[in-house]
Amino acid sequence: MVSERLVANAGYVAEFLALIGSEKRLLMLIHLAEGELSVGDLAMRVGLSQSALSQHLARLLRLDIVARRRERQNVYYSCKSKLAREILDLLAGLVATDKLPSSRLQKYDEGARRFEAA
User: Fold this and answer.
1) Contact 25, 19 (CB under 8 A)
2) What is the pLDDT of residues 97-106, one digit of tens each?
3) Which domains are assigned to the chain?
4) Beta strand residue intervals within the chain, DSSP E
């Protein structure tokens, strides 16, 4: 049975999923769900320049997925979306229980190890 609320909110849900469908934005949310980070720290963790990161953050801000806080000259971001946190928990559970194709996961695990070693 299809949820009427899901049907009524399909546009927002599709836009939300498209935003977190980007590998870099997904990584950003994973790190921001762990706690507030400065732009510089977040850029370093996801491997983006601060200007590229700012463009991604602007899109996440537009949908009210992240929060921004300014302290003197520093800007800090955090994940404020309960929906984003729940989706991250769901994805973590799927990965942990091998419900995603293992051949794809292996490929990404190897790529992540190469990136961390660099």
Assistant:
1) yes
2) 776 666 665 5
3) 4-117 (1.10.10.10)
4) 37-38, 66-71, 74-79
